[in-house]
Structures are given as structure tokens and as C-alpha cells.
Amino acid sequence: MKPRRTVNPSRIGNFKPLVGATIITLLVLIGLLSLTPMPSAGATVNPSNWNWVASGEESPEAIASVPPEPYIAQFRSEWLNQELQQAQSAVTLDGRRLFFVTRAGEYPADVRANVIETQLQSVADSAMPFELEVRQTNQLPAIYLNDRLLVTVTAGDTVDNFTPQAQAEVWMRDLQEALEQAKREREGRFIQRSLIHAIGIIIAVLVLNRGCRQMWRRYRQPLQNLFRGTTPEGEPSDSIGAMDLLFTLLGTLFRIVLAGGTILYIANLFPFTRQWSYRLTDVLITSFTTPIITLTERAYSIIDLAIITGMLIGVVAISGMATNTLRSRVLRLAGLNRGAEEAISIVTKYSLIIIGSIVLLQLWGLDITSLTIVASALGVGIGFGFQDIAKNFGSGIVLVFERRIQVGDFVEVGQYVGTVERIGGRSTTIQTLDRIFIIVPNSRFLETEVINWSHRNPVSRLHLPVGVAYTSDVRQVENALLDAAKGHPDVLLVPPPRVFFKGFGSSSLDFELLIWISEPSQQFGIKSDLYFRIFSLLHHVGVEIPFAQRDLHLRSGSLPVQLSPELEQALLKWLDRNKPGKPEEML
User: Fold this and answer.
1) What residues contact residue 493 under an 8 Å CB cut-off, 6+ apart?
2) Is the dihedral of CA 248, 249, 254, 259 positive or negative?
3) Beta bridge partners of 441
4) What is the DSSP string of 535-561?
5) Which letter does DSSP use for residue 123 in this model?
6) At 556, phi and psi to the nearest 5?
7) CA–CA separation, 261 vs 25, rounded Å?
């Protein structure tokens, strides 16, 4: 018997990002629908039909042709905007746009479109056959649906220099095809095929999402290493964080677009949901393309702002990639040390970011000089609200240009001792001897004392105090200390090691061995090796290394207690009465 297959609960979590993205997309769409006023279906303004926006019985030939832009600029008002919204409206059936109608007499365009759509929808939902024909009504062609007036074609409804009669014939053919298709889509076989198609699309999207997630997990680190570059030790450099942000935004945008596109595509498969999909798409397009902010006489929509933001992030990422390429392909071949490489890289990176941002904003029509007042206000806010960040950023610039502390230096900051791995805009990363990374604010290097063992010349002198017993031969001690120093491979012979007799301690003779080394980061290991050698050599020559001793002396005396005469007599009588050794007590 074959084993039963079970569902791994961990696999269910793979669909959570898609479900979450779908829910977020729906919430955003619902919010846009609730905040954005719903225009009439396809309500747009066609300047070519401006001459026909007139009332009542006036003929089109009697209306003067008025250019739209000067007219709007002169009579901008709420009434005019309402008229513009009603100038032209689309007629749709099951979400499919058929044609546009304009205002006719006292009937606005949206009212005419709603009346036509109502009749078309009732015929499409019914099982009865339909018949379309064009008749002449009041010297104008009219389209009748099942002997009922559907629409009268006026001169304002015509396009491409068509006559009203020719336009009516075109509309009738479009209506014929739309109604036939609407009836076919309401049949059971079509709905069944659409459901199967929708299920297949959902499965394909889930498989695609899973495949993209697996590919992303597999190739994310190689891509980041490729774009970031590597350090000399082969460890990934963290000098650029915009690449991570760019990848994250692209992944999130891909999931949102995939989920939203899937929902809209499935909604377009069914006639009952296609109208909702059409209106939702129209609202989304209107919301994202409508200008929301105006800067330097140019309006920007949500899409424009998103594109600008993405391009700015791209500028930061490309600047980091160019900096890493400069560091790995040019500066290292030039033979510079790590500090000089890092200084040049930081200056190049921030210069490219500033220049690229200015050029990008200028290309988008944003005049940087007009933002001086805004920048001044932001500068005041930054000065008060981000004092520490501004102080650390300024300290980082000073460290880069002064080069008192460079990448690769072995430093001691307070209780932390380690190698400088990176000098950033806000903080400096130090790797301790335990390979622990410590993030130190840049301002601390300027406000407190910092020991830089590698500054200018890394050759440093170490002090090793040694104490011996008072009975030791000082010359034997000196020779033993010098032999221990000269026998170590990391101790420099020039300058030579020296031994100082520091003085007479409380329990030992105090000496100090002074040695020179060229690798300050190895000083703790060198000290340990030397102490091992010193102890072995002193023990070999019979020199004793004392330990701290303390002598305690006890001295007897009278207690400084004064008793009253009465108490003293009572104590004496008690002692005399209880004195041991009386003959009567011993019998």
C-alpha cells in the first residue's frame, strides 16, 4: 500500500506574501474608491466637440467656435467644471466601452449614457431575442432596440467627420456585436470555461510567485555581492544600503502588481464583475495620474513621485556600485593603503549621489534654486531635531578629510580595542580581537581621547612589569629578561629591548622590560608569550617571584573601660565567691 501524502504546513506559509499583498491591494483600492469622487463612466473632455456643448434648439452652425484653453482660463468656475465633466460620457456594456455620447439639448451626457446602459443591460440579461434598426426621428437618425428608442444621434455625437446617419450605422453594428457577446457570456458553458480559466490563472500565479521566491533566495546574495563588491578579506562590504532597499522595493512592487493584475484579469473574465473592474481601473488611473503637488510651476502625480523616488534610489545604488568598482579595480592597483582607499571612495560616493540627484531633479523640471527656503526650514528642523545625527555626520566628514583615524588602524576607544573596518557617514565600525563588531558614533572620536596604535608609524613600545624576590641577583634578572625578549620572533631588535630597575617594592624588586613591536594588534599575544618565557627563565636560574605578604601583630593591654566604684566592688565579690580551688568546694 502506498503511503498517504500529507500537506506540509510549512508550505502554506509560502502563499502568505501573495495573500498579504492581495489584501493590501484591496484595502488600498477600497480607500481610493472612498476618497476619490466617482466620475461618470468614461467622462472625458474632447476639445474637438466643444462647439456642440450647447443647450436646446440652437443649431451647431450658430455656435461660435471658441478655443478651449483661453475660455477655461477666463471662466474657471465650479459651474464650468461641472459642465466639462458632463460634456462627454462613455456608453458601456458589461464593462466594455462602446462609444461616447455628448450633451443633447437639456440632457447631459452622463444622463444619456445611463439611460442607454440601462436598456442594454436589461436586454442582455433577458433570454429574449433583440432587434436593432435605425429610423429617422425629428430629422435625426435614431437607433431603436426592440421598437424602443435607444439613442438619437446628434451632430455632436459624430466623430471623424461622419454624418449623423453614418455614425448611427456604426453604432448599431457595435451594439449588435456587444449584445450578442453579452448573451453568449451569460450562458452556462461560457461561465464554466471562465471558472476553469480563472482557476488555471490562480494556480499559474501561485507557481510563478513560488518560483520567483526560490530564485530570489538563491540568487539574492550573489547579486548583492556582485553589485556591492568585496573587501580584501573576501567579506561582503556593507558600504551601500540602497541596494537592499531597491531590491526590497522591486520585490514588493512585483508582488503587488502580480496580485492586482491577477484580480483585474479574473474580474474581466465574467460579465458581472467586469463593470466593477472597469470602474476600479478608471479610478486607479485617475488617482495615480492626477497631479497632487505642484513645484516650480509643474504638477506631479503619484506615478511621477514614485518614479522620481525610484530613480533617486537607483542613483544611490549606482553610486555605490561605481565606488566599489573604483575601489577594487583602480585604487587597489595603485598601491594605496586601506585608509586612503576608503577616504577616496567615500568622497567619490557622496559626490556622485549629490551630482546625480541634482541632475535628475533638473531633468524632471524641478528647479533646485527655488527650494532654498524649504531647504533652510529643513536645515533649522534638522539642527534642532537631529542634533546627534548632524554632529556625527560632521564628525565623519572631519575624520575622512583629516585622516587621523583610517580604515585598518588599530585603535583603543574607551574599553573597546580593535581594528577600524569602516568609517561611515554617521558611525564607525570597529572589529575587536574577539571578532565582534562595535558601532561607535563618529563624534566620540573627536570628543574623547582615542589611542591609535597605527597612526603614521605602527611601531610601538610595550611595557612588561616584573617583580622578583629581594634575595635575587639583579644581573641574572636583567639577563633573563633580555634573553626572553630577544628570543621572540615578533620583538624588534632595532630599537633593542631594555630593562629598567624601577625600584624597591613592598615585597619585591620591581623591574620593567621594554620591547618594540611592529604589529600593535598582536600585542596581547606577544605579552603572553613573553611572560611564559620570563617565568621559565627565572625559574631556571633560581630567581624567585614573590607574592604579596601581610604580617599581623597582636598586642595585649588594658581595656579603656571605666567602671563605677559600686560596680567594681560587686564584680570583685562575685569573683572571690566563685573563685575555683576552695577546699570546701573540693571536698
Assistant:
1) 486
2) positive
3) 427
4) HHHHHHTT-------------------
5) H
6) -85, 160
7) 10
Question: At 171, which helix (H) or strand (E)?
Answer: helix 164-185
Q: Report yes or no: 212 and 204 within 8 Å, Cβ to Cβ.
A: no
Is the separation of the CB atoms in 291 and 301 below 8 Å?
yes
Q: Distance (Å, rounded) from C-alpha 400 to C-alpha 403?
A: 5
Cell digits for 189? 458553458
Joined grid coordinates for residue 363? 531633468
Q: Rounded distance, CA 98 to CA 100, Å?
A: 7
Over residues 422-434, the pLDDT tens digits come to 887 788 889 988 8
CA 316, 322, 325, 329 torsion-angle sign: negative
Which residues have a Cβ under 8 Å from the Cβ of 256 and sit 6 or more positions away?
A: 21, 24, 25
CA pair distance 469, 505, nearest whole angstrom: 10
Type of residue numbered 426:
R
Helix (H) or strand (E) holding 430: strand 427-432
Tell the burial category of 281 from Cβ atoms under 10 Å away from its Cβ (0-12, 13-18, 19+).
Answer: middle
Q: Using one digit for the tens of pLDDT, what is the confidence trace for 397-406?
A: 788 777 788 8
Mean predicted confidence (pLDDT) in 291-301: 74
- DSSP code of residue 453: T
C-alpha 376/C-alpha 509 separation (Å) is 68
* C-alpha cell recorded at residue 71: 475660455
Full-prediction pTM beyond 0.70? no
* Grid cell locating 458: 605602527
Is residue 361 within 8 A of residue 368, CB to CB? The reply is: yes
